Amino acid sequence: MALGGGTFVVQNKKLPGAYINFVSAASASATLSERGIATMPLELDWGVDGEIFEVTNGDFQKNTLKIFGYGYTHEKMKGLRDLFQNTKTLYAYKLTSGGTKASNTFAEALYSGVRGNDVKIVIQKNADNEKMFDVKTVLDGDIVDEQTVEKAAELVANDFVKFKTSATLAVTAATPLAGGTNGTVNGTAYQKYLDKIESYTYNTMGVVVTDDTTRGLFNSFVKRLRDEMGIKFQLVLYQYASADYYGTISVKNKVLDDGWSEAALVYWVTGVSAGCEVNKSNQNKKYNGEFTVDTDYTQTDLQKAIDAGEFMLHKVGSDVRVLEDINTMVTTSDTQGDVFKDNQTVRVIDQIANDIAVLFNTKYLGVVPNDAAGRTSLWSDIVQHHEQLEEIRAIEDFADSDVVVEQGNTKKSVVVTDAVTVVNAMSKLYMTVTVA
Looking at residue 307, what is its pLDDT? Predict the structure, then answer.
């Protein structure tokens, strides 16, 4: 059973769990978890079908061909190279699952997708033993596997094909696999991804789409998980500032590269959002990716983008840099003011929410008595956590008296009142120089 989580209005929750509200101050083992985890649904020609699969930065650099069917430097990997500039771990999902696996007389592709059609099986007589065959799996002219056997039943599957052990081996120069197709990318494919990813923990989700229906689906998803289930992450979409929500980042710029979606900058923004530390900002960060980014905007355009809650890149000399590290929140309230528009603020509150929820659910829930000593222990852990945030200059002016832990309306509930002041990176310089 999933633990409860999210926000609360009154103390009436049924499920055990951590319910945490963040509100703005009125206007007039508690350790910090690591960041750098992203998730994306991807249109792939190769890869694991129908499941979330984990790819670390090291995996991507060393095993790209095995995982995605293309080498690290291949044009089709450009988006993922942008992502992994700043991401440690990716939870990926193949939207094109459900296609057909390519095959021939001797083997079937390990995964569905059109990339399987580029695999060839080469069979030669062994030079030292005429009863034996050298069976090679070839992709783009490179031998990716070679086995010497007497009959097909002795062949073992490799990273690209599963052999048909009932086949009769015969010399062939190169027999290609054929018939491989990608599955259809539609609403059902996106919903399957959302159903699968709901139980995972990550910092940022990115979706490279341009249609309003799909963008609306994902925006509703992030709102539900953040507000109702207490799963804190940010969503990166392309040109969806209408979300007006601090959990959603809207990328303004389009990419100009042939063969790529105009929304492909989402790869890089997802990476920098996931990888940005809790005490840092992406403001003025230099774009170090490979896409040609449209930055043809005037100063007036840039000002309007900030007012509209759009995450925008702009030209600074010969560099392309992030204008403001902001989300789509435009409408503020007494409980959520302007400070929530800044993604650095969101990273801090998400860090607190995720870390304290994990702390409570693993150390206290169902274990520690709800008496004065137990509540003091929880208070001490939260204070220790916040002191670490202050040490790394993510929050400031913190005092242990800012945290109050009391018994709730029932003997099983605990109420925590917490106050933090988020530190933001310097953004504007106002300077007066008096000249004598």
Answer: 96
Tokens of 8: 């609360």
Q: How confident is the model at residue 393 (pLDDT cuts 50, 70, 90)?
A: confident
Integer Cα distance of 269 and 282 in angstroms: 10
In a 10 Å sphere around its CB, with 0-12 CB exposed, 13-18 middle and 19+ buried, how is residue 47 labelled?
Answer: buried
60 in Cβ contact with 87 (< 8 Å):
no
Cα torsion 69, 75, 77, 78 to 10°: value is 180
In this prediction the pTM is 0.88
Q: Give dist(CA 358, CA 30) in Å, integer.
A: 9
Q: Is 379 left (phi over 0), alpha (psi -120 to 50) or beta?
A: alpha
Pairing of strands 403-407, 414-418: antiparallel
Q: Are 174 and 120 in contact (CB under 8 A)?
A: yes
Identify the three-state secondary structure at position 320: strand
Number of Cβ within 10 Å of residue 16's Cβ equals 15
Using the CB atoms, write b or e for 100-132: b if 16+ within 10 Å: ebbbbebbbbbbbbbbbbbbbbbbeeeeeeeeb
C-alpha dihedral, 29 to 86 to 20 to 416, nearest 10°: 30
Instruction: Report the pLDDT averaged over residues 342-359.
Output: 90
Nearest to 104 by CA among 45, 39, 22, 169: 169
Share the mean pLDDT of the chain. Answer: 92
Report the distance separating Cα 122 and Cα 172, nearest Å.
6
Q: What are the angstrom distances between the C-alpha of 315 and each of 268, 318, 324?
A: 17, 7, 13
- Which domains are assigned to the chain? 4-30+332-422 (3.10.450.690), 37-96+184-322 (3.40.50.11790), 107-176 (2.60.40.4290)
> 275 near 296, Cβ under 8 Å?
no
* CA neighbor of 35 nearest in space, from 195, 275, 214, 289: 275
Residue pair 108/149 in contact (Cβ under 8 Å)? The answer is: no
